[in-house]
Automatic annotation (TrEMBL):
InterPro entries: P-loop_NTPase
Domain of life of the organism encoding this protein: Eukaryota
Protein name in the entry: Helicase ATP-binding domain-containing protein
Length: 95
């Protein structure tokens, strides 16, 4: 059902993550910032571009899929997958 599953939001910069967390807290939207070893889920899971490319994160996302809990994956500032891919490997991997 809509609103009961998990959205993963990949944020390419620390500044965007900080801004997003502030905005989410302001409207009291439940979220979790993923870090290696994290197993917690929330309606919205924030993850850095670098962390999203790791084996541990892929395992985490696959567990959500296996439980049919993953609704969508969103890449904020997705144009960066093309424009900075030559010097930020993680961004080109997301493309």
């Amino acid at each position: 059902a809509w609103g009961r599953q998990t959205t993963i939001l990949i944020l390419p910069t620390v500044a965007l993550r900080g801004n997003m967390i502030g905005r989410l807290d302001k409207v009291a939207l439940k979220h979790h910032t993923w870090f290696p070893g994290s197993t917690k889920s929330a309606p919205l899971v924030l993850v850095s571009a670098e962390a999203a490319c790791t084996e541990r994160f892929l395992e985490y996302a696959n567990r959500l899929c296996d439980r049919q809990c993953l609704d969508r994956i969103v890449i904020d500032e997705c144009h960066l997958t093309i424009t900075v891919g030559t010097y930020r490997r993680s961004m080109s991997q997301l493309a």
